[in-house]
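Our collaborator T.R. sent over the components below with a one-line note: 'Predict the complex.' Nothing else. No constraints on interfaces, no templates requested, no preferences about which chain binds where. So this is a plain run: every listed entity goes in together, and whatever single assembly comes back becomes the starting point for the next discussion.
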Amino acid sequence: MNFHFSRSTKFMAMGICLSLGWFVLESCDCDESKEDQFPGFWVACIGNQPALMSYSGNSATIVSTDSSPNFNPAQWDCSHPNSPHYKNSQASAFPIGTPSGPNGYARKPHAASSGAAYLPQQLRDLPFLPDVPPSANPVCDASYPDVFQTVHTQALVTRISTCPFKIKVSIPVVTRPLQVVMTPDGSSALVTSFDNAVNFIDLATNTVTYTLMTDPSINPNGLAISPDGTRAYITSFNTNGGVAVIDLASRTIIATLSTNAYPQGVTITPDGSEIWITYPLGSSVDIFDTLSNTYVTGLNIGETTDIAFNSTGTRAYITSQATTPGSVVVVDTSSYQTLSTYTVGLGASDIKMSYGDQFLVVNNDAGGSISVIDLKKDAVVTTQLGGNSAPSGIAFVH
Amino acid sequence: MRNLIRVAAYFTFLTGAAVAQPPLIYNRSIYNAASFIPAGVPSGTIAQGSIFSIFGTRLGPTSSVTASSFPLGNTLGGVSINIIQGATSMPAIPVYVSGGQINAIMPSTAPLGMVSVQVAFNNLKSNMAPVQIASSEVGVFTATGTGIGEGVLWNFISQKSQPVNSPTITAKPGQVITLWATGLGPVPYADNIPPTAGNLPVQVQVFVGGQPAGVQYSGRSSCCAGVDQLVFTVPNNAPSGCWVPVYVKTAGANLSNFVTIAINPSGATCTTDVLPQVTTAFIKGQTLGEAIVTRTTTRHDIGTIAPVDVTSDYHVSFAFEPPVTPFPFNPALAFPPSGTCTAYMHASDLLDGRAGSPPLPGIVPTTMPLDVGPPFMLTGPNGTKTLSAGFFSATAGFLGGLISNNILPSSLFLDPGSYTLRGFGGTEVGSFTTNFTIPQPLNWTNRLQTNLVPRAQPLTISWTGGDTSQVVSIIGFGDDLPTNSSTAFVCIAPPGATSFTVPTDILSTLPAGRPNPLQSKDVIYLLTLSGSSLKPINATGLDVGLTSYYSIIGKTVYWQ
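Returned assembly:
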């Protein structure tokens, strides 16, 4: 007879092992240097120039200011305070296709070049579905969605068709744009500009129709929009920190939440009940209740950069650069307890969940790699991109 | 010594941190204390004057404290609860507090709509958690304590004899029943004093097996603050069965959780009209085994530009000895009577085929499976297959599939015809050979027209074909992914029927489909148990064994 351990039993066993490991570690009589504690690399602005850094003993040293396989200075902007510790750009997908089904959110079983066909994403999470071999590259057609990407150094947002992959239009915005997110109805895009602005783009005309200039004390960075499209949440990436709550109907800031310094990412739970804030320079994730705009709790996770939720909002997957290589921390969103950790590539930054909750894609910007976590198989595959790649921004287009 | 100091410092830190940490209400963890219906489905609100449960950590004392005398206070065991809406704030009344759970009475004067709930324990305040308040939203207490299964229903025999209804203590048509619940609505007096008996001014209907029951009383129980009693008579035309659905409808719209009552006109232990031998074994704790093969064909055409048909063959087999309990309930085995429907509202994605989403309570047997030996072998028109593992667990597997649009070529196995199932025997169940037949499939005639389904109108499902003595059930799912909330309903068609109409009450328990259909999983399955496939498995160690073939025809829909 086979015996199967339940998940809780496994976690309990894991917890016991971790506890034993902690005592073993604490019994070590050795002294640690900063190099032992932070054996990895990071990027710092030295004289307004990006440099790859590491510790040697207790001293921070410049490894290189030139391009290397894992470091491309061109990817980093040292033109303003505390750079480059923010995301270079953010891409988001918006499905544009022939409307079908309720409200036009349709996916097509794209014909594929190999003669096989592309499986619609929404089939992946219903029961009674056989395993399907991976599809070949699909043939392009107009039903593929577009991707929007900020071009930080050129004050532009580019709209890119994904099939064929080409720039459709470049939209001027306020300088140093950082992140772009579509409204749930697909009518507009919001773009944060570090230089004190939030840009509103009409996606029908591809033009900025309104610019919300913020107080100079606010440096907009992270951006999230509530599922009902009524609120936007903007992090202010500076020493003051804070999250501005914007009423999208009136395009005004209606509340400000106090945070630690340098909040970067803001991710809203699928049901819109909470926002989760990441701190790449800090050691926590902060969670706020959106009904009362009050603090819920904090998670003790270091150098966090991005968060993805599964479709039901029961799990959060948080990228962290506190480890070398980077990691993805899995959190139970009900109890706010850490469940497990995946090891990914160096400098884990952006993270996105695929439809069906099977795959997580992670950009590892410092390592020039992409990690794909298969949650079904509980496996991680990290692929080096080669050259000077430092991936930034993820968007699923089908 | 240095290490000891470090360890001691660590524990000092832990101790200090534990004392300093405020209470934490878990996310989406406030429910009606009887139904536990999640907020994402239509019945997931908290009624004024009802008892609700808060789950979290550090919410109260390690050892639980229960309120024991009137008047109830606003603080219990150092715990208080505030209900906040804008500038309005008022205390809820704790009746049970512990570190992980609080039960409290929502004030009858609580503001309607979205409010924040905040707990304070020893002057440390928790986070604010959102919850929606309604004037009435009934939750019926269950004997299983899970919100589904046997309700806390007292069979009235005399004032001194009112046993709890169960499969072995059945009710008769015409018998008076007392149903225990919470959430009828506010009272016009303080919530912290002994309630005054009397009907509350809210329209109340009780349905038993889909039949309206005469309600003699609907108001607070004089014993307990926040607790309601509904006294009703089992309708004379109520169906018999072990798990006859019962629900309460208030204000003509709001449905409670669905609980069950056992009805037998003779007063003896109940039986069911669907798979009675399985029911008997389940209730008596006899060893039970079933070898199931199934073909599912689902049309996916919501949210797709072109439809996709997915067909797949599976086998599932189980053998176990159910525990003997006064309130046996497993949603997969506790069938409602023919001609009736039941519904389950649950905080999970019930259509998540992978691990991660909690299944309905009671659906996973709590006893170890019996050892049936090596994998079974199935021989039919398409050859022989070993029923090996590969799907969910060691007792289920994939046999073949087909997806249209040339996505997956056919490898289907379970075509109509004659089959032989062989078991080779293990330490607890002996060997066997059983022959059975898979008939021509039933045809769901209005399947393609079942697309956008208004929840406010009855839904008629029609079919032709199949085989004699088949059992047809309609199973619908509405999964609201962003809120992690689901409703599943199960209807059993009467024998020989060629159509069934799902009532609006049942459909009203479903969450509406999201504008973006990728955020909802809405589907109807027409599940047919073939009579010609039901053959006994005669093996040592099994009190009841059966082969069975289920045809499952599915269609994605959009609940409007």
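Summary for T.R.: The first helix of chain A runs from residue 7 to 27.
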